[in-house]
Specification:
- The chain is α+β, with helices and mostly antiparallel strands.
- It has two domains: 237 residues, Aminopeptidase, CATH 3.40.630.10; 87 residues, OB fold (Dihydrolipoamide Acetyltransferase, E2P), CATH 2.40.50.
- It is built from seven helices and 19 strands.
- The strands form three sheets. Strands 3, 4, 5, 6, 7, 8, 9, 10, 11, 12, 14, 17 and 19 form a 13-stranded mixed sheet that branches.
- α1 crosses α6 and α4 packs across α6.
- It binds zinc ion.
- Zinc ion binds next to loops.
């Protein structure tokens, strides 16, 4: 079946066209206009409309690099359906190297937004109308926060079959099944027309994570292949993703200089030593921190000076036998 034209901003894109649209967003009080570049690859034949977006939090640059490499793939010139790619959906955050918008709100938490709401809510509403109204599937690219490295992972709600399939096509080492309705995942549950959405997280903010970027590009291609937007490609097979149901942040019980022992992707036994906290101005050891559950380390804080309550490690609950394939993957693809 032939594809039909779509309109983004004031631009009509016809089947077979590949164009970049500069979508104008509310200008700043300095009269500075801000545009969001959007790449649209509109196949001749009808099919799914996949959105891939990066830098929802403006300091999360791995998604920008993933999209840059994705756009260079020649296979994209003969896709079935439509690929909409937004390298930086939070342009203001990218300029200021911060997560949030000028009103200090989180764009990710502002969807679906409102025409008369806050700056963030209005921008979310505008993006919903201009972009999300066209799509059938979504891949949202994120990283950890500054100093916090994430093991490459897909986060989504796997209760709907289509979303579970999307997550499995990507073939990240782990899939975190989250019940959260925060952020773009609202599309899954609350939209009148549910849109299967997966979040890919890797590395940390303001740093490029080469292994995670390569995996991200391959994952998106696998998803496009799974959705039959692309013809089968020769890609080295990776083991199936392992689905995890429960993750837990270990936090500093007191402030001080923190030495953290396990590497990302490593299995830790319940009760094993995770970290020690020392007095930063003397020799006293203040705390030893032990694993409250057994599982795999899926995020780690690299900042050695911590205040009480700040995160140290994130552990996804898992038995030792199941953790072996993740450990093997992490040894082959070190992420720190
Ligand atoms: Zn993020």
């Amino acid at each position: 079946m032939k594809n039909t034209p779509i309109k983004i901003g004031n631009i009509t894109i016809h089947p077979g066209e590949r164009i970049t649209v500069a979508l104008p967003t509310p200008e700043l009080y300095t009269c500075t206009p801000i545009y969001i570049p959007i790449h649209v690859i509109h196949g001749k034949k009808a099919g799914p409309t996949l959105l891939v977006c990066g830098a929802m939090h403006g300091d999360e640059v791995n998604g920008v690099a993933i999209i840059q490499r994705l756009l260079k793939l020649r296979q994209l010139n003969s896709i079935k359906g439509t690929l909409i790619v937004v390298p930086t959906i939070n342009m203001y955050g990218m300029i200021t190297m911060s997560r949030n918008l000028p009103d200090r709100r989180d764009l990710d938490g502002s969807f679906p937004g409102s025409e008369s709401g806050s700056y963030a809510s209005r921008l979310a509403y505008f993006l919903t109308q201009e972009i999300f109204s066209h799509i059938t599937h979504c891949i949202d690219l994120h990283t950890g926060e500054p100093h916090i490295t994430k093991f490459p992972q897909i986060k989504t709600c796997t209760e709907t079959l289509e979303t579970k399939e999307l997550a499995n096509h990507f073939q990240a080492p782990v899939i975190i099944n989250t019940k959260s309705e925060h952020g773009l995942l609202w599309l899954l549950h609350r939209n009148e027309r549910p849109i299967p959405t997966i979040i890919y997280e890797t590395g940390e903010a303001l740093r490029l994570d080469e292994k995670g970027i390569t995996m991200g590009v391959r994952g998106i291609v696998r998803v496009m292949k799974g959705l039959q937007m692309l013809a089968p490609l020769t890609i080295k097979k990776t083991p199936k993703s392992i689905e995890l149901q429960k993750e837990f942040w270990v936090r500093a019980p007191s402030s001080g200089l923190c030495e953290i022992f396990p590497k990302i992707g490593k299995y830790v036994k319940k009760g094993s030593l995770l970290a020690k906290i020392f007095d930063p101005f003397g020799t006293e050891q203040r705390e030893e921190i032990f694993a409250p559950i057994e599982g795999v380390v899926i995020a780690k804080n690299h900042l050695p000076i911590l205040n009480e309550g700040e995160p140290i490690l994130q552990i996804a609950e898992m038995k030792a036998v199941a953790a072996r394939s993740i450990e093997t993957w992490a040894e082959d693809h070190p992420v720190e």
